[in-house]
Amino acid sequence: MIKKLSLVSLFTLLPASYYFAQTTVSAYLKDADGKPVERAEVDLKGKDNDVTADKIGYFQFVDLMPGHYQIVITKPNYEIKVMEFDVMDNEKKKDLGVITLYSTLTSADQGLAIIDTDDDSDESSSQVSTVGLLQSSQDVFNRIAAFDLGFYWFRPRGIDGRTGETMMNGVSMVKSDNGNVDFSNWGGLNEITRYPEIATNHSPSEYAFGGNSGVIYKNTKASEYRKGFQFTQSLTNRNYRNRTSLRYTSGMSKSGWAFTLMGARRWAEEGIQEGTFYDAYGTYLGVEKKFSDKHTMTFNFIGSPYRRSTSSPSTQEVYDYRGVHYNSYWGYQDGEQRSERVRKGFQPIFQLQDFWKINEKSNLWTSVSYQFGKDKGSRLDWQNVQNPSPTYYRNLPSYYDSLDPNASVMNPDGTMTTAQDAFQTSLAGWTSGDPNITQLNWDRLYRRNMQQAPQNYYGQNGKRALYYLVNDVSDDKIWNAATHFVHNFNDTTKFLLNVSYQNYRSEQYREVNDLLGADFVLNRDPFAATNQPGKSGLFNEGEENVTKKEGDRMTYDYIFRRQEVKVNPGVKFTTGAFDVFVSAMAGYSTSSREGLFKHYLYQDSYGKGADYDFWNYGLKGQAIYRLNGRNFFVYNGAYYSQAPYLEDLFINPRVNGSVAPNVKNMVVNANDLSYVISTPFLKLRVTGYLVNTENETTVQRFFADGIQLNNTDDQGEQTIVQSAFVTQVMTDVKRRNIGLELGVDVKLLPTLSVQGLANLGQYVYKNDPTTYFASDAAGTFSNGLSYLNLGKAYINNYRQGGTPQKAFSLGFRYNNPKYWWVGANWNYFDDNYLDPSALVRTESFIQNNNSGTPYYNLSESELRRVLEPTRLPSSFFLNANAGKSWVIGKYYVLISATVNNILDNKKYITGGFEQTRNAKFPDFVQDTDREFTLFAPKYWYTQGRSYFINLQFRF
Known about the structure:
52 strands, 27-stranded antiparallel beta sheet, mainly beta, four-stranded antiparallel beta sheet, 955 residues, 10% helix
């Protein structure tokens, strides 16, 4: 009966289609076993006549005018299918044949679902091997790496995310100061941004040249979202506890207008880490105007204000006392929790995008974007008093244990006692969790400030702040313009051209947030009296007002500027059994710093500095050899240069305009070769890769309270720097990342599949780079520069930090025909290291300043012992997920749940860093050999068991 109705419907509509010289397009939907897929929704993008497949999987569109079309096919528990086709003049009927939908695990809030454009039903098509392989939805390795291993900070191939490209509506979202992407700018808008197109690793992309860690391209056209409302409610125990969102899409009206609006909120009074909170909103407005079948324009507004607190890293001593959820950044004030580290901001994005189909062979997309706003991060600061952090090394039991038991020390309340008694008091407080010892004591900070006797400072009378809160502010203004041109010479050859321009301006400064009961704070270096006796100590010499109140700027104020142009042509073609994609790049950037404060130690702190120009070039290539419709060899190669980002170019831009010595364009040479099997029953990829990086400049900045460094300035005056904000620079860094990847998905039954992943990597430094040291409290050294050459850092063959270098995963997925699913994964990580601190592995580290020779009795074996790489423990985890969906008339309901780290493993360290306080060998060894090391590495631990429950309702 259903077949008869379908045929009656078809033949009833055909005469009208023929009369108007329009076309009927039809197809059948089937699963991997050849069975019909019923009730799948088929959306014709840009049109308002979406259809639903019948019980035999048949659907059709009628009365289509000649032109280019795209359909999106969706059904719960099946991968999304996107197809494009052309309707030609005088074409009465177009049969798309059989379209295969593959079953998949559908998680409602994985945040990154990939569009699949592969169509295995047509092995003769030139797009079979290319389109699908460029997406990661059919690549089990990338899927597991993103959704399961990524939760534990696994980085494929050990590649820094700063070498990738993230694009929103045609323009880059990468920040020019540090190369990072601030995902909080569209936080919570998962249902808007969740279907990007991706070129993984260093493979070429149609939209940008990219780098080593892929290209992510997101497009947010208002008409491309499902018409109607979508409500989502999520519960979790991660950084936030609740998420609520609502999206509405009007669909394309007869007059050619479409609107999509969305609002979302994520919040928690306290997250999984102690003393943290979360309050973030997400808003989106998309407006699309269709002028004709060949011309469309969109406007997109994205704005996500946020306010949230962060958690601290700690030494193992602290975690042993208080557990992995401990956070030192908060304390009680009048009985309420208050955090010193609060990040808040609002940097909205406005974008216009024009889509023009020039003719049947050519398309031109043009985008203009403007983003502005401030990002603020607060922190506690102090002057002429001890660091109030409960984890400051002088506030921990290990410090008192390192002293003579009978030595006199001061209690936090100002009274005196012996080191032995202080140790017992501190140990008892830490083991019992006494908040007066283990957390910030806000009431004590207020009391100390308010007990200050009013005095006259720089013409102002009042109480000077000993403790106060500051905000580090980035005030950004970013213009982007880009164009994307495509010309199809024929069915097998395509030319692409991307041109982009970015104008980046960011004023970065510190402002007073809260004086904690005092009247003002002095814009003066609190360590100047000891580090630089006889100097003014003023952070901004010549200013009229040195006494700063809430909202005033202090410490530093400067402007970063950068302009960058990139040209990226590419060609894709098919010849015989090969699909080839070649992409080139030429780029130019100019960068500068303008200081708005005149620092008391640096002549080049004030005014606009020189422009630093860099040219970049690159070439990428991909060759796919089709053994047949299911087996492929894939080669990806890239050779390109990348200019340093602003924070890598300038050593310490807060106080001067000095540029890192010998800074060059980083050069990357990346190659991989894969064997791929893609069948309805087996999907497999095995890849060998090699990535070499040269000429890299790395900059690390940290506050060292307790460091001991001697400085002789250009006048011959010697000072001892004891506490300062310091910078460590390595130039001409060489890295090698080599390894094997294996991803496999075996369908044992139509409803049951087994998936696995293996990553065997070795990510090492391949030379001994030259290391430089600078300090904002040292001033100009005897060499006339603001930095010292400490010689080579002996880190050749040290492992790179930041990610496990071995990873394995094994799991299963069961998809029931009644629209429910369950899955689980076992994940294992090993060979995880902390990045080696360069400062303690330099020639300076072993040199005696008095004799100018290495320290007496220093042996190679002893040096190797104390400088052994910090290896983190291996760990394994179990994850599980399940869900159920219902279609009730026109309504769709989905509920899903994910549990990560089911066994509540709290021994896995996700990251950290080696502390650099003792810059000379004798002091370093003395501290290392203590029972409790004072300056042990600081870690971040995994958060333990976590869950995510999601309810979605479409109507």
